TrEMBL record:
This is Efflux RND transporter periplasmic adaptor subunit. One of its GO terms (molecular function) is efflux transmembrane transporter activity. NCBIfam families: RND_mfp (TIGR01730). It holds the Pfam family RND-MFP_C. It comes from candidate division WOR-3 bacterium. PANTHER family: MULTIDRUG RESISTANCE PROTEIN MDTA (PTHR30469). Coiled coil: none annotated. It comes from the Bacteria. Gene3D superfamilies: 2.40.420.20, 2.40.50.100. GO terms for cellular component: efflux pump complex. Residues 237-275 form the Multidrug resistance protein MdtA-like C-terminal permuted SH3 domain. Belongs to the membrane fusion protein (MFP) (TC 8.A.1) family.
Length: 291
């Protein structure tokens, strides 16, 4: 009788364990699926750059607005927009046909070597002395004229490096000169930037210019998204066992796209940049490397 009872108990225990094994496995699978997924950046060495962004316009090395020296009517336009001119080439003729005046056409001459950028008048149009009739420019060397705000004026140094981006191409340049005073109307100062290369650029184009006010090369960097807002004291690291560790750090240069790390993390470690708001220290996570 005792043997029968033991047999029944073992059968009941076996059935209980058999029925619960799938359940345990299911719970384990669900638990793995519930792990939060975060995006991480691999800490590596690179360049950290801080810039001041300005809005400017591409100009020629020289730009001269030509004005009429006599009053009269535009008789003939010798040069079209885009034509090459030399000093004292005739751009147009103006005829003073007022009764009592000499009916001799007066030439309008180019003051520099370059190109005709703009003709402001048409044939038979009346002009006065001092009326702008044309613009002549030289495009052998291009420059950029821009305005810098009052708060950024202290960063400016002559010959400081800068660049502009046009059509996904970077053009290097340097700050040639800038106004030492603030314009009371615009609350800014004008700067002139000379470009080392000008292929595919045209005079008159608007552009964004970046003045490099600080740069660190070959330093450990992380993305700004590794930090919470403007708190640069700590960040989250995913360790080799996939658990999260909060790490206190010391930062150096806070650049436009990267932040220099002086202490706290090492090259090759994984720093959380996406989803850090949903994790806690010590918790296990799944991660995906974001490049």
């Amino acid at each position: 009788m005792w043997s029968v009872k033991r047999l029944i108990n073992w059968q009941v225990l076996f059935i209980f364990l058999f029925l619960n094994i799938p359940s345990c496995r299911q719970k384990k699978v669900v638990k793995e699926k519930e792990l939060p997924t975060v995006g991480v950046q691999i800490v590596e060495k690179g360049n950290c750059i801080k810039t001041v962004k300005l809005f400017g316009r591409i100009c020629g090395e020289e730009e001269v607005i030509v004005v009429s020296k006599i009053m009269g009517k535009v008789l003939k336009i010798n040069k079209k927009e885009g034509d090459v001119v030399k000093i004292n080439d005739t751009i147009m003729y103006i005829l003073n046909d007022i009764p009592g005046a000499e009916y001799q056409p007066g030439p309008v001459l180019s003051p520099i070597n370059g190109k005709v950028g703009k003709i402001y008048v048409e044939i038979a149009q009346m002009v006065n002395v001092g009326t702008p009739v044309a613009l002549v420019f030289s495009d052998k060397k291009l420059r950029v004229k821009a305005k810098v705000s009052e708060k950024d004026l202290s960063y400016l140094k002559k010959r400081m490096a800068c660049y502009l981006i046009f059509d996904n191409k970077r053009y290097e340049g340097y700050l040639e000169k800038f106004s030492p005073m603030i314009d009371p109307l615009t609350r800014g100062a004008e700067v002139e930037i000379y470009l080392k290369e000008n292929k595919d650029l045209r005079v008159g184009m608007p552009c964004d210019v970046y003045l490099i006010i600080d740069e660190k090369k070959d330093v450990l960097t992380v993305l700004p998204t590794a930090f919470f807002l403007n708190d640069y004291s700590s960040l989250y690291v995913v360790k080799d066992d996939s658990t999260v560790e909060k790490r206190n750090v010391k930062v150096g240069l806070i650049g436009d796209e990267k932040i220099e790390i002086l202490e706290g993390v090492k090259e090759g470690e994984k720093v959380i940049t996406l989803g850090k708001e949903y994790v806690k220290e010590g918790r296990k996570v799944r991660f995906q490397i974001i490049k």
